[in-house]
Input
Amino acid sequence: MALLQISEPGLSAAPHQHRLAVGIDLGTTNSLVATVRSGSAACLPDDDGRTLLPSVVHYGADQTVTVGHAAQKRQNQDPANTVVSVKRFMGRGLTDVADAATPYRFVDEPGMLKLSTAAGIKSPVEVSADILRALRTRAEQSLGGELVGAVITVPAYFDDAQRQATKDAARLAGLNVLRLLNEPTAAAIAYGLDNASEGTYVVYDLGGGTFDVSILELTRGVFEVRATSGDSQLGGDDFDHRLYCWILEAAGLSQLNDKDARLLLTKARQAKEALTEHASTQITAKLSDDSVIDVELTAEIFQQITDHLVQKTVTPVRRALRDARLTADDIKGVVLVGGATRMPHVRRAVAQLFGKPPLTNLDPDKVVALGAAMQANVLAGNKGDDDWLLLDVIPLSLGLETMGGLVEKVIPRNSTIPTARAQEFTTFKDGQTAMAIHVLQGERELVTDCRSLARFELRGIPAMVAGAARIRVTFQVDADGLLSVSAQEQSSGVQASIVVKPSYGLSDDEIGRMLSDSMAHAGDDLEARKLAEARVESESIVNATLAALEQDGDLLNADERQAVDTALAAAQAANAGSNANLIRTAAEALNQASGDFAARRMDRAVSRGLAGHKVSDF
Ligand code: ADP
Ligand code: MG
Output
């Protein structure tokens, strides 16, 4: 999603008319709505003055829908009908979440999973729509008018299905989506980094259940997401869980029933949050058997027992830096996002990692909503002279299958979008009139190790000798991340094309696995590539020799023919094996053996060409 904003049709505002637009951070744990008033962005509070809306929805048997704090209160009594972290289910099928421990009754359906609740069957889109509707109502009441639209943020890693599901939820909630915006990009906007001098910034986002790190680069007013990485199973919840285990140990308990466990988890979260401000805290809870837990916890112990979780964020940070080909020294500033980055030991670790204190003057759990509000303000036409140019990247390389089952990468991973790249390919056989185009995604060298995205065929290529046709294949990824591939034969102009969604259905984990596979197998892949290349090279010599023998075999005497045939058979035999060196040597020998033959064929072709002409004609 690029943010090259020129003008949105129908949205140019009449002078002095302020159009109401909001930014919404639709978070896994908490959601917020913000707007720009009198030039500055602010989060809108509920009637009780709270800006955070817990992303929790309770469905009652009497069809009542409760959202936020009130729903959170029902969670302990009625977990099966209280949906939390619904963002994890957006655009996902049942198999994607099969191993997650949840209290829900899932309904297996093709496409996105659904939840069976007391108020009926709900899809994650409907649950998200209920959260969005609550925020829309809050905004309209507080601003006193109807909204022209909203910018809604999504994780940089969200794929097409997840983005589409988010858009659908907004539409269902009666919101006009001005744009989906990546969360790190929104945070950068909130900090005004787009107005800063040039430099590279890191956005470190530790939320309730996910960790995301992004590297943004600003050059000559152009803001670009250079790389993203993260851990979809790491967040504040893990700190709560670790603390929960510690409390059990301290209280000498081994196991609790579900209800007590949830109560204690809530206590753990409260203790964790208290320790951000205080040196120690008292944890007290009354269990269902009337026994009482009462333990003291110091910030020091809390930090010790959770330090390994903080350290777990280091690997994705390093990976993102490596992908962007940068070191920590190249980073000009670090933006902290997500409630969990309030913890002092998280801040210390980040400062240590980058050798400088992170930016913290904005509230880490509001920063995304604030940036989204600023973007919404521009898109609604309230501010005409802005020229943000913000670019996103594609997470995995896109390429084509070439001879020998190899993948030729056309657009490397982490290329900024929108992007277009073209590469020329040629035919492999004489007289070849069609070419199969197989589009793949992934980092590995072999087709079998990458993900197949689409196939199509270019037909009607004029018959030519192998290698003469020039087929230009263009890959284009538009601002919404949609890939289209087209192929055109240059001399005849025949063309074919296809549109594919490159990231459809790929989860972070899959992307992560495909990346780590490509690193682990770098050695094997190199060997496999060598072998496949040797085979392709040798096969083309074998084919050319066979064609030449058929056409001009009479130029050879019996001995010469014998020598060529022997070399030919040896090359074919080597090709059937899998020794790249042997294949190369045999192909080279065939080349040598047919060298004279080729020269004689050339002479014949020339004399045929000269036949009937006088030298003076030339
Ligand atoms: P998400 O992006 O997942 O919706 P948030 O950015 O709202 O999440 O972060 C929620 C997490 O932040 C929760 O785990 C919460 O306990 C944690 N958190 C909020 N305030 C504090 C605090 N003062 N100290 C430590 N953790 C906090
Ligand atoms: Mg968040």
